[in-house]
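Supplementary Methods. Inverse-folding protocol.

Structures were first reduced to a discrete structure-token string of length 201. This string, shown here, constituted the complete conditioning input.
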């Protein structure tokens, strides 16, 4: 699975999750912050005793006057990964430099209409840290995209569970038009966030 898919397909953690003795377990939550504040936010959190991570790579920046400077470039903008318990997260979200925590868009809403919070498994964080720390090649993150012929399943809404193939992509509206085989040539527009790829259809 690609790094892009890992970010898009985040598992969830329910409120009050803990270990066998009832003590809350720390999870890697995804905090959203203002652009260009990722490193400063991480430093503030580290000074408060929190474990956090901002993926960065060194890059040579060439200015208009020809001057070169080695900078530390943030790989994933507006995101700070924070390893904390749910109780700690509830305190962190009130900090003025934290906008909110990412939710799992594909998750099932609670009875109050709230989406579950998204976390990244430890193994995926370890792989990300290893990759970032051991390559000189540029790393980029791109949203999951589809191409004509890709098999997909609807994961949200009244059509949840419906399977079909991508007929074409309407890039202007960021929507997908899905061809549903058992309905013949029937097509429907659906947001790309409402489908997931299928290995086999």
């Amino acid at each position: 699975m690609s790094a892009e898919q890992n970010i898009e397909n985040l598992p969830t953690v329910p409120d009050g999750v803990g270990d066998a003795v009832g003590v809350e377990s720390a999870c890697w939550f995804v905090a959203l912050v203002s652009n260009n504040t990722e490193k400063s936010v991480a430093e503030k959190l580290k000074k408060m005793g929190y474990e956090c991570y901002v993926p960065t790579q060194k890059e040579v920046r060439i200015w208009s006057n020809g001057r070169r400077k080695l900078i530390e470039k943030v790989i994933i903008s507006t995101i700070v990964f924070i390893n904390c318990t749910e109780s700690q997260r509830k305190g962190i979200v009130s900090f003025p430099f934290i906008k909110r925590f990412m939710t799992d868009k594909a998750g099932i809403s609670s009875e109050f209409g709230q989406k579950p919070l998204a976390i990244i498994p430890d193994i995926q964080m370890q792989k990300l840290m290893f990759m970032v720390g051991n390559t000189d090649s540029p790393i980029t993150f791109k949203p999951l995209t589809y191409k004509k012929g890709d098999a997909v399943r609807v994961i949200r809404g009244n059509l949840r569970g419906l399977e079909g193939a991508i007929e074409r992509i309407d890039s202007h509206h960021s929507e997908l038009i899905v061809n549903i085989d058992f309905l013949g040539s029937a097509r429907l527009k659906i947001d790309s966030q409402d489908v997931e790829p299928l290995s086999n259809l």
